[in-house]
Design goal:
By secondary structure, this protein is an alpha+beta fold. The chain is 22% helix and 37% strand. The chain has two helices and eight strands, in the order ααββββββββ. The longest helix has 22 residues, at 2-23. The protein binds biotin (BTN).
């Protein structure tokens, strides 16, 4: 009987020690460090990006619904003799704050042509924190007649890296 009392007391002591330790700043710091080393860095769409064609895209901050806007300066155009101008973009990131490497979609309504391009992609972040946007795009050109519909679409891929 006496032995049981001592052993219960020992367990209570251990529990108390555990509770005290978990309150200590050193313990919570150690937990923070462990958590950070296990959590991959979050990819952030906001910033300035350049793709493999040399086009520049600027994305603003994403709102609480995942929506963002920005501008796109393409390095190339399907329109002969076009004077390329900066064009507005609008997009939506999936699951804001829930995913480290989120998918997204964005639309560019070209201000110097009648075409529209949509990009879908995913933001990847490597172990050094370097971010890459892997995207697939669909460019819809305005054609003069319904009969020309067959030639109205182009598809391709672009890889963007952060420059700012
Ligand atoms: C047009 O030619 O009518 C508008 C410009 C289209 C540029 C395309 S969109 C997909 C690809 N990626 C770029 O950065 N530019 C081209």
């Amino acid at each position: 009987m006496a032995q049981r009392t001592v052993s219960l007391g020992g367990m209570a002591g251990l529990a108390l020690l555990g509770a005290l330790l978990s309150l200590s700043p050193a313990y919570s710091l150690a937990l923070d460090v462990q958590r950070k080393s296990q959590t991959p860095a979050k990819c952030n769409l906001a910033g300035t990006w350049v793709n493999d064609l040399g086009s520049k895209m600027v994305i603003g901050t994403t709102n609480e619904d995942g929506q963002f806007s920005g501008s796109y300066l393409t390095a190339v155009s399907a329109v002969t003799d076009a004077t390329i101008q900066e064009s507005p973009l609008h997009g939506r990131q999936h699951h804001t704050n829930r995913r480290a490497q989120p998918t997204f979609g964005l639309t560019v309504s070209w201000s110097f042509s009648d075409s529209t391009t949509v990009f879908v992609g995913q933001c990847f972040v490597d172990e050094k924190g370097e971010e890459t946007l892997e995207t697939t795009w669909l460019l819809r050109e305005e054609v003069a007649t319904h009969a020309d519909d067959w030639k109205a679409n182009r598809v391709g891929k672009n890889v963007f890296v952060r420059v700012k």
